[in-house]
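2024-03-11 09:14:02 DEBUG pipeline.ingest accepted 1 chain
2024-03-11 09:14:02 DEBUG pipeline.ingest length=351
2024-03-11 09:14:03 DEBUG pipeline.predict start
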Amino acid sequence: MSEIAEALAEAVSDACERYPSPTGLADGSEWNAQLWSALDQIGITLLSVPEEQGGSGGDVHAAATVLRVLGQHWASVPLAETALQAAWLLGACHATIPEGPMAAAAAGGHFALVRESDGWVADGELIRVPWARIADHLVVLTASHVAVFRRDELEIDPGTNVAGEPRDRVVVRRVSLPADRVHIVPEDSGIDEGLFIARGALARMAMLAGAAQRSLEMSLTYASEREQFGRSLDKFQSVQHQIAEMAGEVLLCKTVAESAAMALDDSEGWQLAISAGKVTAAEAAGNVARIAHQIHGAIGFTEEHDLRQCTTRIWSWRDECGAARNWAEEVGALTVAAGADGVWSLLSGGA
């Protein structure tokens, strides 16, 4: 990690410790507004936006570093959706970026944006939109346009993931949008639904790495304090093997997230890096969650214990922005398309 990234991670970690996110059973109704304000003061809520557009000018790798720390602290803030997706879309369109938290979504088959004489009309629904209910604005990517909605223009049907984070159904009932809130996607930007989802997948990889790291730390502490048969758990060889396996999986999560982030920054070869990375991170973090609960026993599932804050997020994030099976199929499709003569070039990035 570079000195700048290390300083950034330390600043975000300090903010998370000053303003910890709720630890009770979550129903999606709470978010950490104090932490969001602290992150805004640090200057990272628009991390991936160029400085000339009011952002911090950071790259995807810097965003992944921040998201890993937020995952480690189960931070209840929509930074991935705001900085890595919504603000990125608007920045690419050279559009004005509104203040406050944002949600982002790609238009599916049940959403339409139609041009009319005096502007645009949007109609339809979007499912499982992260943090829609607390976002000041929702940014929607269609095939060739980016539309911006205010929260009061939307009907929101609340939903949550396993961790209790908001994943809401958003209904848009013939909302009229002025021309200055619908932007054309530049043809040379490379932006499409695939890249949008890939950036979301990268965010989940980074947060999985953070949650896995925290699960390991909790397991190390618990194993050193909990005694069985007159000695602490960490003195048993089987437990030592489990913790060693966890450490390897945590390192794997971090490595694939960093590799995928650098691939997105390079804008080349990111399809394989994201696809393989999401598969690997989902499996590795899932193994960490499994072992952590084996070490903790029943107490790790209780409301009073913080372990479930990490593991429920691991179980949620590994399936979001494409489940492992979907990304594994993408790895297969890329390999078949490369052919026998192109596999090495695919794996080595053309080296």
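2024-03-11 09:14:41 DEBUG pipeline.report The two ends are 24 Å apart (CA to CA).
2024-03-11 09:14:41 DEBUG pipeline.predict end
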